[in-house]
C-alpha cells in the first residue's frame, strides 16, 4: 500500500513501517520514549507493537483506563505527572498506541507537556485509523462536552497497520465504518455507494478502503488545517451526533454510545435536514436512512432523551453568533457547511430517524 | 513611549493604547469578549480598564482566585466551563487583565479552548509587564511543578500601562524588579549597573525601564521563540529559583515566595556557580550577592529546606539526559546556557547565599 505524504508528516501503511519508525527514533536524538496506551490495548496490541519496535531509545509504558469517560483533564494530569516522575524532558517523544481516545488525548498531552514535545500515532481501532488520528486534532472532553479542550498539532508520523484490527470487536469495527460512510457522503459518491451495501464489501482488502478514507480526509485537512472553512465538512453527522453522544455519556441510565454509532444517528438526522435546507433529494435521504439503519439499527430515544440531547447543541464548535450550524448534503458526495439550523428542524429530523 | 513591533504582535505603551485595542476588537469580527481577571484586579484594575475600553463587542468578566496556587488545571477547567455556558465560540477572544498568574493561565486557556482562540494580554503587575506576558509562554503548574503544562502561543496584542502599578504593593514591585535585574545580568551590563543601586533609580520614569526590559526580552525571544537554545538565558536564576519556589508553594508551613523573590535567591546561587563553572569573577559574584540581598534580604533556609528544595530540580524544563542544566554568567551582561551542574555545587551555592 502506498504511503501518504502530508504537509507535515508521513502516513505509513503496514507492518514494514516499523523499520522506518525505528530509524526515525534513533536518528532524532530523543532522550526517552513514552508509550501511551489503555488497558485493552496493553493486552491486545502492545505485545505486537513492542515486538516490532526496533529502537535504542529507552522507553516507558503508561497505561490509562479505556473509554471516552476517561478522555479528561484529570487523566492528562496523571499521565503528565508520571512522565515528570520518569524524568521526561523536552527531548522526550510520546507514541500513542490505541483508539481515538488515546490518539486524541495523547496528542494533547504531548502538545502541552513542558509546552510541547513530539508525538507519533499508532491507531489500533478502525475509527482512529480512518479519522481520529489523521489531521492533527487533539483534545479531551470537559463535563461531557466533546473535545472542547485541545489544540491543533501534527504528529511526526502515523502508522496504519490493519493487524491491530484482528482483535477488535465487531461493534468497534462498525463504529469506525460510520466515519468511512461519512467520507463518501460528503466527498465521494462512488465510495459511499460501494460502502453502503456492507454485505457486498470486500473486507479482505480493508486496508485499501482505509487508505481511500485517509486520502479523502487528508485532502480536506490540507486545504484547511485549522477548520476555518472547508474542514468543517468532516463534521457531517457530528452536530447532532455529538449532542446525543454527550447526553448518553453523562447520563448514568444510558449505555454509552460509541462515537461512530452516534455519528451514524447524526448522519441520518442531518440528511433529513439536508433535504429540507439543502438540495438533497428525498429519495436519497430515505436511501441513506435505510442504509445506515440496516447497519446500525435505531437508537432508542424517548421524547425526554431528545429534549435533553438538544441541550448539548449549544456547545458545538461550529456554532457562532449563538446559532447552530450544520454541515449538510446537496447531494450524495457533495456537502456545504455553516448552514444555520433550528432546534425544531433537528427535532423533526430525530422523529423521522425514529419512524 | 515608542511601541514595540514583534514578529507576531504589537506591544503598546500607555493609556492611548486602548483606542487601538478598541479598533482592533471592532474590526476583527469577534463574537464575544471574555475578560479574565482575579479578585484583586477585579477591585483595583478592572474599573480603570473598563472605563478605557472602547468596544462594541459584547463582553463577560470571569474572575478567579488570585495566587500561584490557583494557576492549575482545575481553575482552567472552571473558566472553560464558564466560557462554554456563556456561549463562547471559536470567534471569541479572551483578554487577560492581571499579573503573571493570569497572563500565563489565560494564554493557556485561550490556546486550548475549542482548540484555540485569540487572546490579548493586559499585564497589571511589574513582573507580568517586563516578563511573564511577553514572549508567548503560557502555562499552569501541576502539583507544585511550575509551568510544566502549557504551550507557546503569541497574543494578538499586549498593552503595558504603568497606571496599573499605582495600586500594587511594594513587595510585588520588588518581585518584578528581580526580572529586570536578570535582564541586565544576562544581556546588558550597563542596565544592571544602573538598576543595582535601587536607591538611585528614577522610578518617575519606570515606563522607560520597563520598555528597555521588554526590548531585551523581545530581542532574545525573536531569535529563539520555542527555547531551543538562546532563549534559555532568560531562565537565569530560575533553575534554583523554581525549585525553592515549588518547595515553598507545596509546603504548608512556609509562607509562599513570590516568583520574583525566588528568582532573586536563584540568581545569587547561580552567580556563585558561575564563578565556579563559568568565567564570572569572584568579586562580581560578591557584588551581585550584596546588591540582591540589599533589596530582597535573605530567605531563611534550613538544611532540610535545602535538601527538600533540591528534590524539585529534576522537574526543570532545561534538563536533558537526566542532568540539571543551568544558565550561567561569564561576566555581568554575558550568559551561557546548558551548563551541567551538580547538586553538590548547588548546595554550596545555597550555603554561600546564606552566609
TrEMBL record, chains A, B:
Q: What class of enzyme is it?
A: lyase
Q: Name one GO cellular component term.
A: cytoplasm
Which CDD domains has this protein been placed in?
DHQS
Listed EC numbers: 4.2.3.4
Q: Which cofactor does it need?
A: Co(2+); Zn(2+); NAD(+)
An example GO biological process term is:
chorismate biosynthetic process
Residues of the 3-dehydroquinate synthase N-terminal domain: 62-174
Q: Which Pfam families match?
A: DHQ_synthase, DHQS_C
| InterPro entries cross-referenced by the UniProt entry | Dehydroquinate_synthase, DHQ_synth_AroB, DHQ_synth_fam, DHQS/DOIS_N, DHQS_C
Q: Which UniProt keywords apply?
A: Cobalt, Lyase, Metal-binding, NAD, Nucleotide-binding, Zinc
**MF annotations from Gene Ontology:** 3-dehydroquinate synthase activity; metal ion binding; nucleotide binding
Nucleotide-binding as a keyword of this entry, yes or no, is: yes
Domain 3-dehydroquinate synthase C-terminal spans what residues?
176-319
Q: What does this protein do?
A: Catalyzes the conversion of 3-deoxy-D-arabino-heptulosonate 7-phosphate (DAHP) to dehydroquinate (DHQ).
The protein depicted here goes by the name: 3-dehydroquinate synthase
Q: Which gene encodes it?
A: aroB
Amino acid at each position: 500500500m502506498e504511503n501518504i505524504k502530508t504537509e507535515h508528516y508521513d502516513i505509513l501503511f503496514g507492518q514494514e513501517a516499523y523499520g522506518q519508525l525505528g530509524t526515525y527514533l534513533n536518528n532524532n536524538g530523543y532522550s526517552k520514549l513514552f508509550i501511551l496506551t489503555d488497558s485493552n490495548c496493553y493486552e491486545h496490541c502492545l505485545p505486537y507493537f513492542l515486538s516490532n519496535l526496533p529502537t535504542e531509545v529507552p522507553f516507558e509504558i503508561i497505561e490509562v483506563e479505556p473509554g471516552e469517560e476517561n478522555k479528561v483533564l484529570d487523566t492528562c494530569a496523571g499521565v503528565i505527572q508520571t512522565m515528570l516522575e520518569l524524568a521526561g524532558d523536552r527531548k522526550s517523544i510520546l507514541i500513542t498506541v490505541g483508539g481515538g481516545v488515546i490518539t486524541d488525548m495523547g496528542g494533547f498531552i504531548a502538545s502541552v507537556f513542558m509546552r510541547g514535545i513530539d508525538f507519533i500515532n499508532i491507531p489500533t481501532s478502525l475509527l482512529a485509523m480512518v479519522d481520529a488520528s489523521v489531521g492533527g486534532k487533539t483534545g479531551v472532553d470537559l463535563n461531557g462536552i466533546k473535545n472542547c479542550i485541545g489544540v491543533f498539532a501534527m504528529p511526526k508520523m502515523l502508522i496504519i497497520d490493519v493487524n491491530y484490527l484482528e482483535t477488535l470487536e465487531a461493534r468497534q469495527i462498525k463504529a469506525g465504518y460510520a466515519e468511512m460512510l461519512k467520507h463518501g457522503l460528503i466527498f465521494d459518491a462512488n465510495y459511499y455507494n460501494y460502502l453502503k451495501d456492507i454485505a457486498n464489501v470486500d473486507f479482505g482488502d480493508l486496508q485499501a478502503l482505509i487508505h481511500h478514507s485517509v486520502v479523502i480526509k487528508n485532502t480536506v485537512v490540507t486545504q484547511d488545517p485549522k477548520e476555518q472553512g472547508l474542514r468543517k465538512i468532516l463534521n457531517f453527522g457530528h452536530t447532532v451526533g455529538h449532542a446525543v453522544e454527550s447526553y448518553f455519556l453523562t447520563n448514568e441510565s444510558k449505555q454509552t454510545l460509541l462515537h461512530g454509532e452516534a455519528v451514524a444517528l447524526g448522519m441520518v438526522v442531518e440528511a433529513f435536514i439536508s433535504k429540507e435546507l439543502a438540495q438533497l433529494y428525498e429519495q436519497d435521504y430515505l436511501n441513506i436512512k435505510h442504509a445506515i439503519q440496516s447497519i446500525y439499527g435505531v437508537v432508542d430515544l424517548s421524547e425526554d432523551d431528545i429534549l435533553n440531547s438538544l441541550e448539548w447543541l449549544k456547545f458545538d464548535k461550529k456554532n457562532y453568533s449563538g446559532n447552530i450550524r450544520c454541515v449538510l448534503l446537496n447531494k450524495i458526495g457533495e456537502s456545504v457547511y455553516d448552514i444555520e439550523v433550528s432546534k425544531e428542524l433537528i427535532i423533526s429530523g430525530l422523529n423521522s430517524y425514529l419512524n
